[in-house]
Each structure stands twice: as structure tokens, then as C-alpha cells.
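User: We ran a pulldown and think these components assemble together. Before we commit to crystallization trials, I'd like a predicted model of the whole complex to look at. Sequences follow.
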Amino acid sequence: MGEIVLKGVTKSFGAVSVIPPLDLTIANGEFVVFVGPSGCGKSTLLRLIAGLEDVSSGVIEIDGKDATAIPPAHRGLAMVFQSYALYPHMTVRNNIAFPLKMARLDKATIDRKVEAAAGVLNLTPYLDRRPGQLSGGQRQRVAIGRAIVREPAAFLFDEPLSNLDAALRVNMRIEISELHSSLATTMIYVTHDQVEAMTMADKIVVLNAGRIEQVGSPLELYSRPRNRFVAGFIGSPRMNFIDGTAAGEDGAATIGVRPEHLALSTTGGRWCGTVTVSEHLGSDTFVYVQADGVGTLVARAGGEFPVHHGDRVWLTPQPGKLHRFDAEGMAIAGTGQDRAGAAAAVGASNPRGSE
Amino acid sequence: MATAHSRAAARLTMAPAVVLLLGWMLIPLSMTLYFSFQRYNLLMPGDEAWIGFLNYEYFLTDPAFFAALWNTLLLVGGVLVITIAGGTALALLLDQPFWGRGVVRLLVIAPFFVMPTVSALVWKNMFMNPVNGLFASLAKGLGLPPVDFLAQIPLASIIVIVAWQWLPFATLILLTALQSLDSERLEAAEMDGAGPLDRFIHIILPHLARAMTVVTLIQTIFLLSVFAEILVTTNGGPGTATTNITFLVYAQSLLQFDVGGGSAGGIVAVILANLVAIFLMRMIGRNLDI
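Assistant: Here's a predicted model for the assembly, 645 residues in total across the polymer chains.
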């Protein structure tokens, strides 16, 4: 039930190749997130799996059967669209019942399934309203309801939360995650938001220009990015990249270090610089430092780290948390920064201890 | 526009248009109303007199009136059915991507630019003529007797001519409505297992309902007063077979020189048109309220 395998799938629109040959296996019951910047082909890939677009070459297998030529309705997949794509002239009940009516089920079965789905999604009081009378979050739930009544082999979500406000997005994120744990059905979720990817996924597929950059669990991508693109895309605020001589000291063309792995000190450290902006978020402080000879670096400090514009601070990467990339942007094995001298210099300069 | 000053200025600047429109409408209407209660025949000048509702009595008891009423309904209804069904079909076709779509769309609109007398004459002489017409040649080519359309099935022929003129209008409105349909909604229906026919019935038709009511309303207003096509093709005949209310009013006042009777017919036509308008407005009000 719900294993999806892509073998050498390509897609081109006319002369423009959108997806170069791509192989991917999605195991049954997995929550897979396709993430990447806009225009990277993640939605196209989802539409290829759904059958709404035809592949230019390659094979899509669903449950071990070749589904490449099967029309979308018969692939056993359900999709939730970015615009929800509800039917405005039908009540919520009829919206949810629509796929069942199209499957020509009898009325009693339809009613039972619709009631059950509405119960799961807390939509029972709204069954006789029209989509126009619902809030964004409720419409989203109707769209999900329409998907779950079909009991599909897999759910496809195309940026479903991008039309919701920030607070609602967090709630729906949790609801979808809970839905996944209770249904245990394969879900493929497309987003450009790496926070959604990190929080919801069992497995993240990072896409860039139609290519798969890396596949792995959220923490794998976070701690062992395969290349500079993944390293920069996953994590917020994004990783600091340092080129030139500072990187050369570590034997790499570029080194990367995440803001949370930069130790701040007012007394000494590896790089010295001037604070340009410090953002106090309460729980954290993000300090933007114009480091001498290195460029702008962002560091995360504790919630009450008292630095201001113009202060001189020192930054030191935490041991073992430095990422090294070669000239092509590929990661170099080993974190390499454990230079004895640097490590010793950091030793005394715990930022919080130095207050 | 909230202050008293700006409101007064707005009234002042709108006044000329309002006065002109009111004059344009009210003066002819009141004159028609006045004439309808007069004995006023151009063949008997100087014999004008107040005769109360006699003109109405004659007009409404004239057997031609009921024939004309029925013909009017058939004409309006027939053209509406053909244009909406045909317009939907054409809009669906023109919405498909194909080579030369822009040119074809422009050509489809063309009949709307042909003036009614011209298009009716073209139909009468080039297509429907039993001797020289294209349809007659086709029939003869198939070994069938040619049909004299305007003599044998006159009303149906006129319905076809008028429908041909109004088909582009319906197509245009329905095509724009079709293009405003969110493609994700159709894709969602496709994922939900709806085939082409189900998608048409459950998604496309409800989406077009509003445009269809607009087409119905606008066309009804114009179709109630179809006149030129009848004048140049059948002159209301044979008998009263193609006389609608508009043509009957014309015949009464300008062929029988009975201005009083014609005016009474005009007032009856205004009342009928208003009844239809009220009925349509209520229907549309319900339909626009989604």
C-alpha cells in the first residue's frame, strides 16, 4: 500500500528540461517532503506522480505496478491543492462526498464515510455550509477531508499551508502531522518552507533546478549536508559561508558554520568583528557581525546577550560543527576544523561565562 | 464623497445626464400613452377623439395578437436555447489549445458585427432561397426536393437567422466565464475520479450558470424587439406566422395607419417586457447570490 518508485523520470516542456533523469523511492507510510526554492520543479514532480502531467520518459511505479500510463483518477492517490480547489457551489458535505459519488458508491456508505471524515477533521458543524462561508483553515480541512474519504494509497500535498496566516500554519502543520500518525498512509508534501520540511518530514528531498541535491532525515540534512546548496537551504537563519584565506586555513574552498554553532565572546576568539545589528527575540539573540577579512556572519547567542551596534566581538566556531566544501561546493568528509590552536583559543571564551 | 458640499456637487454634475435620459424616455412614453386613448387614424385626419380603452380592446381581442404573443415567446425561447447550448459548445471548443486559435476566435465574433438587415438578406437570398440558395443546391445534390424555408417553416427559419447573429455574443460571454474557471478545480475533480462528462456537469456547468443568466437577460431584452429580420424576410407572413408583438405594432400603426391602435399595442408590449424583466431579475438575483 503506497510505495512509490520513480525510475529515470524526466520532464521537459518543449525544449526546456524541467526535470533531468531522477530516481527516488518513497517507502510505504513515509512522510516525504519535497523542498526547494521556487521554480525548482518540486510541484512538477508532484504533478508527475499524481498523473496531472505526463512524464517525458521514465517509469513511475505505485505499489510495484507501473502507473506511468494510468490516468490520475485510477492511481489511488489523493491530492490537496494550494488553492484548496474546493467546489464553491457545493456544500461542505457534497464537496467531501464528491469523490465517493464519482466512484458510484451507495448513499448510505457515502453518508457514513463523510460523517467519519468530518468527525476526524472537526468539520461536523459546518457540513451544510458552502466553502465561501468558511475560514482559510476550515477550507483547508475540507480539502483534506475530500482527500481522506477516498482512502488513497498516498496523499499528495502541494504547498497546502502557503495561503494561511502564520499562527494557523503552525496549527495545521501539527494537525497534518497528527493525521499522518493516525492514518499511517504515505504522504508526499511539497513546500518551499524549510521549517515545514524540518518539522513534519520523515524524509526530506531537497530539490534544486529539478535535481535531487540530497535525500535524508531532517537531522541528517542538518548535520551532514552533502553540498553547499543543502547546507544553505536547511536551517534558519541560514548557514554562514566563508570563502578565501579563512577557508584555506581549514583546507577547503569554502567553510560553513551555522549561527547556533558560533560562539560569541567579548574577549577573544578566532574572528574579530563589529556588530551591525542585534535582533533580540527573547529566547535568542541573533547578532550580525561584520567580521574583519571574512564578511558578514550571523551568530546566535542567548536571550539576554548584551551587545549593540558598534561593539567589538569575537566569533569562534564550535569544535566539530564546521562544514567544509570544495571548489564545486561539495562537502569534504570530516569537519577538519579541529586545529589544535583554534580549539585551545576558544577554550576560555564561553560567551555566557564571559559576562 | 462624504461631505454635504461634495454630494451637492455630485448631484449638480449628474443632473444634465439624468434630465436628458428622463426626457428621452418620459416624453415618448407619455405621448404613446396619450395616443393610445385617442381615435387617431392617419387616413381620417381631423377625426381625433378620446375613446377610452377601445384601442386596447381591439388590440387585445385581435386574433393576430395571440398569434404574435405566441410567436414572440417561441422566437425568444428558441433563440435562447440555441445560443446558450451552441455558445457553451463553441466556448468549450475555443477554450482548447489549437493552432490559429486567435484568428478563429476573431472569426467567431464576426456575425455580431453584421447588421441585422444585411445578415437576414444574406440568409434569405444566398442560403434559404428555394431556387438559387445554397441549401436548395445541397438538397438537389442529394436528390431531395428543395425546401422553401421562409414559406414552409418561416418562424423556424427566422429563429435560425437570429440565433446565428446572437451565437457569437453568447460564445464570447461563456468563453470568458470558462477561462475564469480555476484549472486546479478541474484537476481536483479529475483526481476525484470525475470523467469528462462528470466534470462538465458538476464543475463547468455550475461555474457557467451565472454567465448563462446574464446572457439570458441581455438577449431577452433585445430579442423581444426583433424587427428588421422579419421585415426583410417574410414581412410577418405568411398570414401571421412570423408576426411578433413588435411587428404587429408596426403593422397596426404604419401599415393600417392606426396610430391609436399601434400606441395601445406599444403600451401592451412595454407591460409584457416589464413582466418578463421582473421575472428574469428575480431569477438572476437568486443566481448571482452565491
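Chain B has 13 helices and two strands. That may be worth checking against your pulldown data before setting up trials.

User: Thanks, that helps.
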